[in-house]
Each structure stands twice: as structure tokens, then as C-alpha cells.
Design brief:
Shape: globular
Order of helices and strands: EEHHEHEHEEHEHHHEEEEHHEEEHEHHH
CATH architecture: Alpha-Beta Complex
Strand content: 5-15%
Helix content: 25-40%
Strand order of the largest sheet: 7-5-4-8-11-10-14-13-12
Number of helices: 14
Radius of gyration: 22 Å
Number of strands: 15
Distance between the termini: 31 Å
Number of domains: 1
Largest sheet: 9 strands, mixed
Structural class: alpha/beta
């Protein structure tokens, strides 16, 4: 991505969608990351020296471009505009409009491209790695940044897409600016969710906000649905934001990993665009959606559909063997999908997640997990667990090696992050 100078955009041709909203012509829209941020400078790792109150260099961010589509200037006008849009959306049963984002300065917010407006994400054979922010947060957590950075670092030939529901990214908090300079393959974007769910069995669940009804974890429900639709439309590898990638995953095609001996995981998987397995999973979710059952549209759906397709003697051949039938927790192949053993994506089981955060004997992470592609941190269980710098914990060792920019920011002024 290269930086661009300010220029006169003129008025973009606008069309109304089926709900009466104005949509700018994507060819005229100049809101790409490279347009608002000069990312052409040489990459520089921000590593503060001991005792220095050094701040990351954000001089490359261009604050002079006065494109009216950037969230800036009058906060009251911004709030009024967002409120008006939300009222229109509510009138059409759209419960997904995020509230007006807040920042110390409105121009700190980077307006994100819709991933469906970018041809590179939709080309056949694209090496897409897809992550989601299903809440309305405008700044990723430290662990999310670490996941994004590790994936970008270990998979330089792929594009790591971070789909943010809020539609904007706060570039002045945390390592955002430095990471976007360091990794040209790291691309925060947004998505029109109605467009995302269109053409899938999940559209009705979205439009009726069923995911947000009678549940204690609406954002988890939404994230489960979003990943299915996103991979269905674009194809690629979906990854949760609570991982650290420790190896290249671009050679993995049509794979799902066992999460435990009885359950397939939906936190990391690769499927090609319009894979029939995804169609079956989405249809099952739509036909019997349960909002307050954990994993109903994620691991449970994956496991039950795979059992239906390959259970008993219906064709799953365990790796290296000849016997047919589903062998829980073990490598195998079914319907053109490779089922990887637990160690591939979930080397530390959820039941012993604390192992990741306690001091360990120094040992390179790749030697500790020689057959793993990622370390999963089980954020639903561990999100309150502090990470101590230089404690020797597996997570701190992994972060230092595989997300060094994020680690440097997180530990610049604190020993706990």
C-alpha cells in the first residue's frame, strides 16, 4: 500500500439501495488505508529505550486531507448524522448499527474500505486470512493485535483481513500505525453485513436479530454467523483473534482441526469459496437456531454436520489407515476436507488454559509445539489473566517472537499487559 496525496474527489455518483440508503460508487471512493495514511515509509519497529518516554512515530499520518467521508470536524454533527442513520436502520429491523465512535480527535479515526469493494479479496485463489471484530470496538485489544501481527509475519504471501463491524479504526492508540507500516499484508476493513449475509441461509437470522434474542453472549453468536458467511463468499482461512500464529498456514487448504476428542473447532479453519460443507452448516444453523447454547452455530454445528456426512462407514478415512468411519480427535479426510489432529490449532486444551500464562522453563515455542500452527489462548476463559513481561510464560515468549511490534507497545511502560 502506498501513500497518496490529497486531491479533489468531487461528488461521487450515488445510487440508492433497496432500503433507500445512498451508496457511493466504489470506483470514486477514495477511502483506502493508503489514502489516509502514508504507508510508503520504510518499516520501523518501535522499541522504546529503558527510561525513555518515547512515543511511536505517527508523523506519517496525514491529517490535512479534508475528505468529507472521514469522521472528523464537528463531533455534534457526527453524532447527529450517526443517530439519523441508526434511526433509519432501526426502521428496517437493522440492529447492527454501531454507535458513533469516540476518539480524542475525530480525525484519529480511519474510515475503512468495505472488503466486498476490493477485487483482491474476491479473486479466485486469493490467499485470504480472515479475522473478525464483531463488537463495535474501534481499537483492537493487545491480544487481537498480536494475532493479526503473527499471522501477517508468518504468512507474508497472504493478505490478513481484519473485518471490523464499527467501520473505523483508531490509528492513534496502540500499535496500529506502526503495524500498518510494518506489514503491507495487514488490512483492516469493514463489511456491509446485509450484503455479507445475502445469498446465504443465515439472512433471516440476521434481519430478525435472532442472534441477539434470549442470549447472554450476542456478540459471540454474531461472530459465529459472520465467519460462516465471510468464508462462504470469499474463501480462505478464518482465524479467531485469540491466537498466536507460529508457522506458515498458506499451504493448508480445506482443513478443519479437532478442538478436543469429541468436537471439531470453528476457531481456525480453511475452506474454499462456496464449499458445500459450509452450505450444509449454514442450513443446519438456520433450521434450528439456538441462541443460548454455547457453540451451537460454531463447533457443535461443524461436528454434527461432519458426523452426518462421514459418521459410521460413510467415507472418512483416518490418515495412514484404511478403515472407514469417523475417528474423533484424529487426522482424517471427509468430503474433500482434511481433519487435523488437536495439536495443529489447539495444542493447549481449554481445560488447562492457565498453562499459557504461568512461568515455564525457557524453550523456543516452535520446539515446544513442533507440530502446531497456532496457539489458542481461549480468550473467553483467559481474558482477565494478566501477562507478565519476561515471566517466561508461553504466551509472553510467543508474543515476543511472533508479534514483536505489539509486544513492544504493550510492555513499553508496564511489565503487565
Amino acid at each position: 500500500m502506498n501513500g497518496r496525496k490529497c486531491e479533489d474527489h468531487g461528488e461521487a455518483e450515488a445510487e440508492e439501495d433497496e432500503f433507500g440508503f445512498k451508496n457511493e460508487n466504489n470506483q470514486a471512493r477514495k477511502s483506502s488505508i493508503g489514502y489516509y495514511m502514508n504507508l510508503s515509509k520504510p518499516s520501523a519497529l518501535f522499541v522504546p529505550q529503558a527510561g525513555e518516554m518515547t512515543q511511536p512515530d505517527v508523523s506519517h499520518i496525514d491529517l490535512t486531507c479534508e475528505d468529507p467521508r472521514v469522521l472528523r470536524y464537528d463531533p455534534a454533527a457526527l453524532q447527529s448524522s450517526v443517530t439519523e442513520i441508526k434511526e433509519q436502520a432501526d426502521a428496517h429491523n437493522d440492529y447492527l448499527t454501531c454507535p458513533a465512535p469516540r476518539a480524542r480527535r475525530p480525525h484519529d479515526l480511519l474510515l475503512l474500505d468495505d472488503i466486498f469493494s476490493l477485487k483482491e479479496a474476491q479473486q479466485e485463489g486469493s490467499l485470504n486470512i480472515l479475522l473478525l471484530e464483531s463488537s463495535c470496538a474501534v481499537q483492537p485489544t493487545t491480544r487481537a493485535w498480536c494475532a493479526l501481527e503473527s499471522l501477517a509475519q508468518q504468512n507474508p504471501e497472504a493478505v490478513v483481513w481484519y473485518v471490523m463491524r464499527a467501520g473505523v479504526l483508531n490509528t492513534m492508540v496502540g500499535p496500529a500505525a506502526s503495524l500498518l507500516r510494518q506489514y503491507s499484508n495487514l488490512r483492516p476493513v469493514t463489511a456491509d453485513l446485509r450484503h455479507l449475509f445475502s445469498g446465504t441461509p443465515l439472512l433471516r437470522l440476521y434481519t430478525t436479530a435472532a442472534w441477539n434474542t434470549n442470549t447472554t453472549w450476542p456478540e459471540v453468536n454474531l461472530a459465529d454467523l459472520l465467519r460462516l458467511a465471510l468464508v462462504w463468499h470469499l474463501g480462505g482461512m478464518y482465524v479467531d483473534t485469540d491466537v498466536v500464529c507460529i508457522r506458515d498456514v498458506t499451504r493448508l487448504v480445506d482443513v478443519i482441526g479437532w478442538q478436543e476428542t469429541s468436537t471439531l473447532g470453528s476457531g481456525v479453519f480453511h475452506l474454499r469459496r462456496h464449499h458445500p460443507f459450509l452450505q450444509s452448516v449454514m442450513q443446519r444453523v438456520a433450521d434450528g437456531y439456538q441462541t443460548n447454547k454455547w457453540g451451537w452455530s460454531g463447533p457443535l454445528a461443524f461436528t454434527q454436520v461432519m458426523l452426518q456426512l462421514c459418521g459410521g462407514a460413510k467415507g472418512l478415512v483416518p490418515g495412514g489407515g484404511g478403515a472407514k468411519g469417523l475417528v474423533p480427535g484424529r487426522a482424517g479426510r471427509c468430503q474433500g476436507i482434511d481433519l487435523l489432529p488437536i495439536i495443529a490449532f489447539y495444542p493447549v486444551p481449554a481445560s488447562v488454559w492457565k498453562t499459557l500464562f504461568i512461568p515455564q522453563a525457557p524453550r523456543p515455542v516452535t520446539q515446544r509445539y513442533p507440530r502446531s500452527y497456532m496457539i489458542h489462548t481461549w480468550n473467553q476463559l483467559s481474558y482477565r489473566r494478566p501477562i507478565v513481561k519476561d515471566s517466561g510464560s508461553i504466551y509472553d515468549q510467543a508474543a515476543r517472537a511472533f508479534c514483536p511490534v505489539t509486544h513492544a507497545f504493550a510492555t513499553a511502560y508496564n511489565t503487565v499487559y
